[in-house]
Amino acid sequence: MSSSDEYISYGDDPLQEIRVFNYHKDNLRTLIVVHGGGWRDPRNTYNDFDELALFLGSKKVNVIGINYRLSPKVKHPVHLIDVLSALVYISKKYNVKEISLAGHSVGATLLLQLIDYKRIIELGYESLQLAGVTESALPDKKDLQKLYEEYETNVKVQLLYFIDGIFNIVELLKEYPSYDFVHDAFVSTNAYTEATQLSWTKGDSVHDHDHDHDHDHDYNAKSYSAFVCHSSQDELLSINQTQLLINYLHTAGIPHAFTFAPLGKHEEVYRHPNVGISILQQLDLDV
């Protein structure tokens, strides 16, 4: 079975769609790409990764992009739930159990959230309730539990590749108070504080994971690694967010590596040839 440049829905909304840039059942690796755009910019889609997918496809890597619903139409944690749903759909349809993920900007935020997706979705629900907001796009708890079970059964992550991402939204707004796109995606300060492990106050400490049996937080049992990429020419994000992530990965005991290099502006970095080469290296494939 092989596919090239197919567009397939994984939900009812037009934005709940995947793009299969390249797929063949004999390919050794599968990379899922998640776009940025501040949770709201329709100009950022899976099409951002055209150049990357063309390069990786020539190296016999399956490349599939995820679109997800955008704010302000939906609020956190809907974006994360969409990514989970898409990953389950991809794994089942294409029979790929082991995947790697690359995310740019808030796509990288979503990758970070995937590490503790249950807890972050639960905290997102709590934030909506505290704000008195009913999010019609949220599935009920029974459907959500089914999604969790399917994800745990069908998806095994090998690599998380973070590209010029946002990882601590509280610190982001201290550095860039004009970044009002955050307020379109989250219902309150509490919502974005609890949205990632780097700022949450109600989530579990990374030191407590071995004792937590209610959530899948045992980092020692994780088989994946992380790679963090940041362009020195990024005009929208300083190195601060990436440094915060690296500190977190170190504390959490997640194997990781890091590169800081001139890879273009914020919306250019994922197109830079060196990013594709780096991903191949992280996937243990020949360049």
Mind explaining what this structure looks like?
The protein contains 10 helices and 9 strands. The chain is an alpha/beta fold and 287 residues long. The protein has one domain: Alpha/Beta hydrolase fold, catalytic domain (Rossmann fold). Strands 1, 2, 3, 4, 5, 6, 7, 8 and 9 form a 9-stranded mixed β-sheet that branches. Strand 8, helix 9 (240-252) and strand 9 form a beta-alpha-beta unit. Helix 2 crosses helix 5. The longest helix has 17 residues, at 78-94. 43% of the residues are buried.
Domain count:
1
CATH topology: Rossmann fold
Instruction: Enumerate the spans where pLDDT stays under 50 for 5 or more consecutive residues.
Output: 206-221
CATH architecture: 3-Layer(aba) Sandwich
Structural class of the helices, strands and pairings? Answer: alpha/beta
CATH superfamily: Alpha/Beta hydrolase fold, catalytic domain
Tally of alpha and pi helices: 10
H/E topology pattern: EEEEHEHEHHHEHHHEHEH
Overall geometry = globular
Mean pLDDT: 92
Distance between the termini: 25 Å
- Oligomeric state of the chains present here: single chain
Helix share bin: 25-40%
